[in-house]
Amino acid sequence: MRTFFSNLAIVGASLLVIASVIFSPIKKAEAASGLAFGGLVSFVTICTCSAAEAIWFTPLWLGNVPVTGYMVYQPATTFLYPGYMIGVPGAWHLGTYTPAVQACYMTVPDACIVLPSYGVIQSTGTSVPGIE
What we know:
The protein is of the alpha+beta class. The chain has one helix and eight strands.
């Protein structure tokens, strides 16, 4: 009787594994969401009314023509690749961002106002300052 239940348990576990493999959803490979950016950090402004930092890049590549401007770093949502030199002046950054999201708010008397930026950084890798 004991071998019958042992065999039944083995068969049941095997069927469970096979069913989970057959009926599990297959996820296709996807490219990273967001648009690419790259640039050299000039200075950082702390967003006093939101949990973020506005990083000024000079130059900032969002496409074919370099510009200058803020990109917002949110510690809770931005994925950092090893290097972790986010916002350090002189460090190069390369990553992806969500365009047109205004996430940096500055305190003024009795209110908070938006500090305009190109968008919010989704993920970024950094260099060591002074090493290109």
